[in-house]
Amino acid sequence: MIQPRLVIAEKKAAPDLEAFSLSNGLRCVRLDPADRPTFDRDLTQLLVDEELDLVALTFDRVLPPEAVRHYAGRMINVHPALLPAFQGMRGIERTLASGARFGVATVHDVVDEVDAGAIIAQAVVATVPEETVADYGRRVYALLEPMFLQVIRWYAEGRVGRDGDGRVVIRDAHYGTLPVSPALERFEPRG
Question: Helix-strand-coil percent breakdown of the chain, rounded to 5?
Answer without folding.
Answer: 30, 20, 45
